[in-house]
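User: As part of a screening pipeline, I want to sanity-check one entry by hand. Below is the sequence and the SMILES for magnesium ion. Please return the complex as structure tokens so I can compare it with the automated output.
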Amino acid sequence: MNGLAPIVSWPVMLAAARERIKTPLLIGLVLVMLIIALGAAGPNADGSEGFAAIAGFLLLIFTMMLGAGLIDEEFAAGHAQLVLLRPLTRAQWFGGRLAGAGSVLAAAMTLVWLSTTANAVSKGAHFDLARVLALPVAFVWAFAWLAVLAALSVVLKAWTNIAWLLFATILWWASKLAINGINAVMVAKDKSTDHFSQTVVGFIGTIEPYVCPQDPLQIIHTLHNGGRPDWSPLAYDLVWLFGAWTVGCVLLNRRELSRRTT
Amino acid sequence: MSDPVLQAVGLTKKYASAVSTVTALDAASFEVRAGEAVALLGPNGAGKTTAMQCCLGLLTLDGGEVKLFGKDPELLEVRQRIGFSPDAPQFPSRLTGLDVLELHGTLLGQTRAQARKKAEELAQRLGLAEAARRSCGGYSRGQGQRLGLAAALMGDPELLFLDEPTAGLDPSGVAAMRTLIADLKAKNVAVVLNSHLLSEVERVCDRALFIKSGRILRTHDMHNAARFAEIRVVNAAVVAERVKRLAPEGVFDGNTLRVPIASEDVMPGLLKMVIEGGGEVLEARASGAELERLYLEIVEPAKVAA
Ligand SMILES: Nc1ncnc2c1ncn2[C@@H]1O[C@H](COP(=O)(O)OP(=O)(O)O)[C@@H](O)[C@H]1O
Ligand SMILES: [Mg+2]
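Assistant: Here is the complex for your manual check:
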């Protein structure tokens, strides 16, 4: 663990985890996730049942709540300035905040995973590599989202990092719908020629997997069914995770520390 | 004399916005030595907080240079040796005061157990023993101020910056602050202080820098300050003649005679003279540096004249 010391400050991580874990809303959400995960566990469950479908949606909400204002709220309070006057680098502080929120995420996910696994075992499930890998694979995915939120929080005020992320998601889906609609109309009108709209639809299809962290649970389903999984979503998520982490540190280094007090 | 622990040369800081640019600090230079308490005095918006933040490396300078212990303030080894208690600090609302202090202690290299112990001691000493166990979210302004001070003291700093440390404190807090600063000075700690409580500054500080519109207008040495004897009498008219002959530099302000003196030693002789001249004395005291008058003279000359 000490190998991480240059990029993660343990005291900051502990404080961030402490502060995040005391959020009543988050605790409530974990309970809901637990209930849903246990309800979703059918006989064919592969270990991802706590993080897929509606449970996966809740996991993303949980992640967003953890990441809301993760960096900026410390600036707004003026506490970041005090902490950064201590002998630590900004990168260590950023890493500590992210890792602190990440450890709460990991704890919640482990809790969900343990419950679904206990449930499966009680129903006679045997050892399954897919089930073992479900937790780390899903965690990398959620943690990559958290890193994106942390990086956004360096430049966006308070909880607006989630607002902007939601806004961008909605914008993306809306433009995709609109372009698909336009394309459908164009093609219906004249099937004989190639339309520019087709190129755009094709382009969107190509970049879609890369615009945000990818849901990697396909890996678990495939493993469970005895197939050879495509690991690339996990690789993309790792790229997102460390990419967002790096961008966050770079942005933070450019931020002036003082706040306006008068 | 020892090397200065703080050396600021030509500090300039401008805040630019879309509509205007404020020059918050305009080529300000000053020094602070170990064991010395220096106050920055000036009206709201004079640039006192900005000056502190520039010294701490929290702001990027538009000109000038700061050295702490002869080194760049951003060096981690320098940060190990400084403390900063900001004006009206806020803390993560869900952490307790002790959690916050533990964080600062461990960041300074203490173990968690050492940090906890130190945190409890400081909380006790600064009147936060009970509040420190509660979440910071519910702190009053004064409690937040005390926690900020405790955090600043966690690492036994050699150079301490206090930005309006008495704002929001109750009278016993103000008195405790005075004792604290005296203790720190005795331990050779250098203290830089922003405060509007001139009487406190007068009692604990060695020097005062008068600052206005980002410029340091004057440095005032509290120890070399002209002192005054102030003697309030019932019958000013009766003694006025005699005083005019024996202590010509004395002036009457209503019923109060004010005479510049070199030291308190001359007080008994002065009193004797007034009494022998028929003066009925109500009150007599040797007053110090007259910081308040100086402040008004230097910082707000227009108001004094009016
Ligand atoms: N972050 C900021 N942005 C713009 N102007 C600022 C900022 N901080 C301070 N100022 C301005 O700079 C001047 C000096 O402020 P400050 O150093 O806080 O004064 P003081 O602490 O002496 O009351 C004031 O005019 C203030 O309005
Ligand atoms: Mg101020």
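Points to compare against the pipeline: Chain A touches chain B at residues 9-12, 14-15, 18-19, 22-23, 73-74, 77-79, 81-83, 85-89, 256-258, 261-262 (CB under 8 Å). Chain A has a mean pLDDT of 91.
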